[in-house]
Structure formats: structure tokens, C-alpha cells
UniProtKB/TrEMBL annotation:
Lineage: superkingdom: Eukaryota
InterPro entries with a match to the protein in the record: MATH/TRAF_dom (IPR002083), TRAF-like (IPR008974)
PANTHER family: TRAF-LIKE FAMILY PROTEIN (PTHR46162:SF40)
Transmembrane segments: none
SUPFAM superfamilies given in the database record: TRAF domain-like
Designated name of the protein: MATH domain-containing protein
Occurrences of domain MATH (ranges): 1-35, 55-91
């Protein structure tokens, strides 16, 4: 578990879209995300860590990413260990 509160691996939008950097290949980018959910002490819920999710991979295909305007995109809802999630990114 990375306990640092920072985003050391973020890249700029210009870098992502620069063909010479190699992040977009055939208008497609694959990346990984570590997501940690911290419980709110004001709520009466218990959060347990999922050591090995049954399905630890989710694919979301965004067609013609580089032609999208400055907007937020939201993935379809998906379920991991009974919890519903979605991804939201800003192009």
C-alpha cells in the first residue's frame, strides 16, 4: 500500500496526446489505476480490503479519444466485490 498522498505518475494532457511519446497507439491508451477507499469516521460502515478481487480488471473502450472535446467522460457502472463503481475522466 502506497501511503503517500500525491500523484507522482500523472502526465499532462499535451504529453498524452503527443504521438512521439508513445502513450496513444492507434488512438488507444491502456493504463492501470490503484484505488484505495478510505472510510469516513462519521459513517457507521466498515470497510475491508479486498486482497484478490475475483475480477481485478475492467476494460472501458473510448473510441476516437483524441478527437473528443474538453469534457468529462463516465464509464458504465461495473461491480467489484458487490460494490458498484464507475470511472470518470476529463479529456
Amino acid at each position: 500500500v502506497n501511503l503517500e498522498w500525491c500523484f507522482p505518475n500523472l502526465i499532462s494532457h499535451d504529453t498524452l496526446n503527443d504521438p512521439s511519446k508513445g502513450y496513444l497507439v492507434n488512438d488507444c491508451c491502456v493504463f492501470g489505476v490503484e484505488l484505495f477507499v478510505l472510510g469516513n469516521p462519521r459513517q457507521g460502515e466498515t470497510l475491508s480490503w479486498v486482497k484478490q478481487p475475483k475480477n481485478g480488471r475492467y476494460s472501458w473502450k473510448i473510441d476516437k479519444y483524441s478527437s473528443l472535446k474538453d469534457e468529462f467522460l463516465r464509464s458504465p457502472v461495473f461491480t467489484v466485490e458487490g460494490q458498484k463503481w464507475y470511472l470518470r475522466i476529463k479529456n
